C-alpha cells in the first residue's frame, strides 16, 4: 500500500475515532431548581383549588421541551423540586439547592424571596421569580441576581385598565379587601386609573371578619349581603375588586345592587395565562400540559414553563452550559423568548422584568389581550404595562 493510501486510511481511522468520541461524550448537565411553598393556598371556589404540583408541572413540561432541543446539542436538563414548609428557612433551602443548581425558580412571597436573593448573593446563582407580583421587588428592592418572569401588580392593573378605558367604562367603584396584598393591588389599580384616564367614583373596604368561607347557609347570606354592601354608590360603569386574599370578590358577580360588570379579582381578571388561552399556537402547549399533568395549565404553570424555557433558549443560542454565560445572555440585548402570546418576550434591562402581554379572562374565555390598540410607546407597546424606564426606582446591585 502506497504512502497516500496509508495517509488516507489513517485519516479515516482518526475521523471515525473522533466521531465515536463525540457520540460517547457525556452531555452537558444543566440542573434547574424549583423552590416553592409546601402549603397550598385555598380559594373561595371549590373548582379553582390549586393542585399540589401547581407551578412545578409547568417547569417539568419545559424541561421536556428543553431536552428535545438539548439532545441535538449534547445538553441535558434536570429539575430539582424543593418545597419549603412554613417553619423552614427558605434561605437554607435555597443554599441546599444551590449546591446542585445554578438557576432556581422561586415561587415565594416577597420577603422570603428577598431573603433568598441576599443569601445567594455571593454564589453564581440566578433566581427566576415565577410567583411574586410585588412591584417593589423590581423597584426599590430590586436585586441583580433575580429575573422576574411573573408580571407585576402594576402590569396586571394596567392591562385591565387599558381594556376598561377602551370600552369607555371609565367610572369605577373600587372595592378593596382589608389585607395588605389587597391594598397593594388597589394601589396599582389607582395608579392605572390615573395613568389611562379612568375615574374612581368611590372606594369601599370589605373587612375580613373571619369565619368559615363556605357554610350551608352561605348562599342565602351572601345573596342578601352583597347587594346591601354595594348599594347607594355613585353612578359607575364597572365594579373593580382588589381581593388577592380570596375573601369576597368571587361573590360579587350577579349580586351587586346595580346591574354592573365586575373586574379585577373576579369577573374579568387580568392574568399572565389562562386555561382558555388557545391563540398563537397555544392549543398544542395546552394539550401537552394536560397529557403531562392531567389538568389545565394556569398562570403559575406558565410562568414556570417560561422561566425554564428562557434558560433552555439561552443554552441553545450560546451552545453552552456555563451558568454565567447563560445568565449574561438572558440579560443581554439579543435575548427573546416565544411564549404563545403573539409576540416575542424580552427583558427590561433596568429592572430585569420580563415584558409580556396581559390576558383578560372571564373564567371561560379570553376576552381580550393588552396592550390595547391605540396605547402607544416609543420603544415597545409592552412597556405601557407596568413601571417604565423613566419611572423606575431600581438600581441593580
Strand content: 15-25%
What is the name of the CATH topology of the largest domain?
Rossmann fold
What is the N-to-C succession of helices and strands? HEHEHEHEEHEHEHEEEHHHEE
Number of strands: 12
How many helices? The count is 10
Helix/strand structural class: alpha/beta
Q: Could you tell me the radius of gyration in angstroms?
A: 24 Å
Query: Mean of the pLDDT scores?
Result: 92
Number of domains: 2
Helix content: 25-40%
**Fourth CATH level, the homologous superfamily of the largest domain:** Response regulator
Biggest sheet record: 5 strands, parallel
Question: Which residues form runs of ≥5 with pLDDT under 50?
Answer: 14-22
Name given to the CATH architecture of the largest domain: 3-Layer(aba) Sandwich
End-to-end Cα distance, whole Å, is 68 Å
Q: Give the CA-based shape.
A: globular
Task: Give the strand order, joined by hyphens, for the main sheet.
Answer: 2-1-3-4-5
Task: Provide keyphrases for this structure.
about 400 residues, alpha/beta, Rossmann fold, 2 domains, 5-stranded parallel β-sheet, 4-stranded parallel β-sheet, 10 helices, 12 strands, about 15% strand, globular
What would a concise description of this structure say?
Helix content is about 35%, strand content about 15%.
Amino acid at each position: 500500500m502506497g504512502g497516500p493510501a496509508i495517509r488516507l486510511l489513517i485519516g479515516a481511522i482518526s475521523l471515525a475515532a473522533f466521531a465515536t468520541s463525540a457520540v460517547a461524550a457525556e452531555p452537558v448537565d444543566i440542573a434547574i431548581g424549583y423552590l416553592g411553598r409546601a402549603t397550598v393556598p385555598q380559594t373561595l371556589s371549590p373548582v379553582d383549588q390549586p393542585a399540589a404540583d401547581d407551578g412545578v408541572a409547568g417547569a417539568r413540561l419545559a424541561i421536556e421541551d428543553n431536552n428535545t432541543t438539548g439532545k441535538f446539542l449534547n445538553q441535558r436538563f434536570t429539575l430539582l423540586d424543593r418545597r419549603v414548609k412554613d417553619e423552614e428557612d427558605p434561605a437554607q433551602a435555597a443554599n441546599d439547592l444551590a449546591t446542585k443548581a445554578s438557576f432556581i425558580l422561586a415561587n415565594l412571597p416577597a420577603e422570603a424571596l428577598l431573603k433568598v436573593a441576599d443569601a445567594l448573593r455571593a454564589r453564581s446563582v440566578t433566581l427566576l421569580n415565577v410567583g411574586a407580583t410585588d412591584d417593589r421587588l423590581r423597584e426599590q428592592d430590586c436585586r441583580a441576581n433575580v429575573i422576574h418572569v411573573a408580571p407585576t401588580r402594576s402590569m396586571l392593573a394596567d392591562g385591565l385598565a387599558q381594556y376598561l378605558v377602551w370600552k369607555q367604562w371609565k367610572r369605577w367603584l373600587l372595592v378593596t379587601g382589608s389585607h395588605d396584598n389587597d391594598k397593594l393591588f388597589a394601589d396599582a389599580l389607582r395608579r392605572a386609573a390615573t395613568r389611562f384616564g379612568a375615574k374612581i367614583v368611590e372606594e369601599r373596604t370589605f373587612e375580613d371578619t373571619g369565619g368559615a368561607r363556605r357554610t350551608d347557609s352561605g348562599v342565602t347570606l351572601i345573596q342578601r349581603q352583597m347587594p346591601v354592601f354595594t348599594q347607594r354608590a355613585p353612578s359607575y360603569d364597572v365594579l373593580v375588586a382588589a381581593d388577592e386574599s380570596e375573601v369576597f370578590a368571587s361573590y360579587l358577580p350577579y349580586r351587586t345592587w346595580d346591574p354592573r360588570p365586575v373586574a379585577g379579582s373576579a369577573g374579568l381578571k387580568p392574568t399572565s395565562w389562562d386555561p382558555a388561552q388557545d391563540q398563537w399556537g397555544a392549543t398544542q402547549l395546552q394539550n401537552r400540559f394536560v397529557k403531562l399533568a392531567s389538568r389545565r395549565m394556569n398562570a403559575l404553570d406558565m410562568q414556570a414553563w417560561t422561566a425554564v424555557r428562557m434558560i433552555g433558549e439561552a443554552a441553545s443560542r450560546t451552545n453552552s452550559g456555563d451558568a454565567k454565560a447563560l445568565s449574561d445572555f438572558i440579560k443581554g440585548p439579543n435575548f427573546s423568548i416565544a411564549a404563545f402570546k403573539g409576540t416575542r418576550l424580552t427583558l427590561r434591562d433596568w429592572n430585569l422584568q420580563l415584558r409580556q402581554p396581559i390576558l383578560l379572562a372571564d373564567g371561560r374565555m379570553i376576552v381580550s389581550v393588552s396592550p390595547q390598540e391605540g396605547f402607544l410607546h416609543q420603544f415597545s407597546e409592552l412597556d405601557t404595562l407596568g413601571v417604565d424606564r423613566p419611572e423606575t426606582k431600581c438600581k441593580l446591585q
